Amino acid sequence: MPGDIARRSTSAFALRTSSARQSRELTRALEGIESRAQLQSAQIQADALAASTRVQATAFVAQTALNVVAALSVEEARLAAQVPHALPRLSRIVDRAAAVAANEVTRLGWPL
Fold first, then answer.
1. Residues 100, 50 contacting (CB under 8 angstroms)
2. Angle between helix 2-82 and 87-107 (nearest 10)
3. Of 35, 51, 58, 103, which is most buried with the most CB atoms under 10 A?
């Protein structure tokens, strides 16, 4: 009988130890899952911020290009009215400036 109590006590201790170890392993596994989820979430947020920044940069460059090309076109018309024979040269200059502006917008990722 005394041996039975010792065996039961040892069995209970082994069961508690095993249960505690499994609990720690489960806790570590869950912490790992949570850590990976947080990392993935941070990566998604960083990707979204980068995409938003690219869109804003492209919009800024496009708006600037539109304003500059419009101003150059107005100036081209004004100068052409004053010096009609310069129109072909003026047109080439404005067209090339517009092409440079379009290339910059395209370079930022928005093909025309």
1. no
2. 180
3. 58
Residue type, 29: A
Q: Provide φ and ψ at 30, rounded to 5°.
A: -65, -40
User: What's the rounded Cα separation, in Å, for the pair 8 and 73?
Assistant: 96
Residues 6+ apart with CB under 8 A from 98: 65, 69, 72
Buried b (16+ CB within 10 A) or exposed e, 45-58: eeeeeeeeeeeeeb
Instruction: Determine contact, residues 108/57, Cβ cutoff 8 Å.
Output: yes
How does pLDDT run across 22-40, given as a tens digit for each residue? 888 888 888 989 989 999 9
DSSP string, 6-47: HHHHHHHHHHHHHHHHHHHHHHHHHHHHHHHHHHHHHHHHHH
Task: Please give the Cα distance from 6 to 14 (Å, whole number).
Answer: 12
